[in-house]
Amino acid sequence: MKVKIKICGINDEKSALASRDADYIGLVFFNKSPRYVNSKLAKRIISRLNGGPQKVGLFVNQSIDSVERISKEVGLDIIQLHGSEDIGYMNNLKKIINKPLIKAMPIKTKEDINISQEFKNFCDMILFDTKTNNQFGGTGTSFDWRLLKNFRTSKKWMLAGGLNINNIEKALKTAKPDIVDISSGVEKERGVKCEKKIRNFIKYVEKI
CA 156 → CA 55, 89, 100, 126, 180, distances in Å? Predict the structure, then answer.
């Protein structure tokens, strides 16, 4: 089965159009991120796509009311939780929104991966990202993919953290994820996507 691709941190129309052949695009609604988009801009970006990839909204420790409002306004397909949201929060959110949930897990050690098993029954996908201090994704740094070498779960899972066109083949061979999630690896500067890098990355992964 071919690996699926998520381009995260889309915050302008041109980079969204460059991502049309991806399986997912990520829109960041965390206002401390350099990739932040508000509802109005996100809605405009999505309207330009006229279908295309599934739209994932990324949230960090935000109120359920806020997530619900933005999800409705923008027309999100999937909700990604990238903070310290617990199982109770996820249960309540699922009852109100009834959309697939991705739970991001910050990884540094094998124990971090084991913790993810506690969440698997409460979300639809797990995303493994690099553990850092007070930064929620988009760091441009990788963790040791060998930690995931024999990882097995009944849920689809994503690999994120420092992926780029130069290391993606090694990442796929080592970790064997269902989905790869790239953000800083297709940027020309922090928070600014490069259309050429996006297109090249998608074409490259599709050939692996």
Answer: 17, 21, 12, 7, 11
Please state the pTM of the whole predicted model: 0.93
Q: Report the distance separating Cα 51 and Cα 32, nearest Å.
A: 28
Closest CA to 90 of 108, 110, 104: 104
C-alpha torsion 42→47→53→56, nearest 10: 20
User: What share of residues in the chain are helix, strand, coil (percent, to 5)?
Assistant: 35, 20, 40
How is residue 186 written in tokens? Answer: 């297709």
Please state, in angstroms and rounded to a whole number, the distance separating the CA atoms of residues 17 and 51.
11
Query: Could you report the per-residue pLDDT of 33-91, keeping only the tens digit for each?
Result: 999 999 999 999 999 998 899 999 999 999 999 999 999 999 999 999 999 999 999 99
Q: Are 141 and 111 in contact (CB under 8 A)?
A: no
Q: What does each C-alpha distance from 158 to 15, 104, 117, 126, 155 come to in angstroms? A: 21, 9, 14, 6, 10
Pair 172, 152: CB distance under 8 Å: no
How many of the other CB atoms lie within 10 Å of CB of 121?
Answer: 10
Kindly state the greatest CA–CA separation across the chain: 42
Q: CB burial class (10 A; 0-12, 13-18, 19+) of residue 71?
A: buried
Measure the CA angle with vertex 63, ends 87 and 39; round to 5°.
125
